[in-house]
Amino acid sequence: MTAFSSIKAWLSLPVAPIQFIVNLPAQWIGDVRTVINTHDNLISENLRLRSDQLLLQSRLQRLIAIESENNYLKSLMQSAQKIKTKTLIAELLAVDSEPFMNQVILDKGARNNVYMGQPVLDASGVMGQVVQVGPITSRVLLVSDPHSGIAVQDVRTGTRAVAVGEGYSGKLRLLYVSKTADIQPGDIFMTSGLGDHYPEGYPVGKVINVNSNPTAQFKEVMLEPSAHLDNSRQVLLIWMEQHA
């Protein structure tokens, strides 16, 4: 019996490698399947993480935008508190920006007692004035529009002038400035209050260029508008005393 068992064991030795070879494809396929499943799981996890990251970034940007808007509204309210007459916050609904026309549409109109020629400010300075009033909306001519004109005064020297819009450039230009006028880059021009269109003492623009051409009759003075004409969403409507 013992001899038989020994013979059986010896006979099984040549078969073992064959069994190992036979089982090898099944084991290899199982390993490959495991690797593929792991790879697919990693891809799915990666896609999910990317999606979560984009969602978090979107929410973060939204929170940043809300915080920025809240800070802007605080600045606007602080500006309103400095004005002794009636004021109202309005929001931009649309923008008409063409080379020779710079206007915006507000969500306030006749039902809010908005009137023609009404001054419009943002938190940083003068934006323009109302040129058209509808029942629930109004159109504002921005200070950068070529048809706009504001009586201004240099804070440093008291020099008076009229600032008009350049349209395409978004800048302002002073009209008929004497060659002897003391105006320098960096000077701030504010509303002078002359003409009854704008209240006195609100920023209009900062001098960015002064050109004295010997052959020209007047100085060429360019201003950067104080108001954020391109990105203000909320503005301040002001009632002049005769309309309050």
- Approximate helicity band: 25-40%
Q: Flag low-confidence runs.
A: 8-13
Treating each run of at least 4 consecutive H or I residues as one helix, how many helices? 1
- Would you tell me the structural class of the helices and strands? alpha+beta
Give the radius of gyration: 37 Å
Provide the β-strand percentage band. 25-35%
What is the distance, rounded to the nearest whole angstrom, between the alpha carbons of the first and last residues?
123 Å
Number of strands: 12
> What is the string of SSEs from the N terminus onward?
HEEEEEEEEEEEE
Question: CATH topology of the largest domain, which one?
Answer: Thrombin, subunit H
Largest sheet: 6 strands, antiparallel, barrel
Mean pLDDT: 79
Based on the coordinates given, report the CATH architecture of the largest domain: Beta Barrel
- Overall morphology: elongated
Q: In CATH's first tier, which class of the largest domain applies?
A: Mainly Beta
Describe the fold and architecture:
- There is one protein chain.
- The chain is 33% helix and 32% strand.
- The protein has 244 residues and is α+β, with helices and mostly antiparallel strands.
- It has one helix and twelve strands.
- The longest helix is centred in the N-terminal third of the chain and has 81 residues, at 2-82.
- It is elongated and about 85 Å long.
- The protein folds into two domains: 1-82; 85-244, Rod shape-determining protein MreC, domain 1 (Thrombin, subunit H, Beta Barrel).
- It has one helix at 2-82; strands at 87-98, 101-106, 119-121, 126-133, 138-142, 149-154, 160-165, 172-177, 188-191, 203-211, 219-225, 234-238.
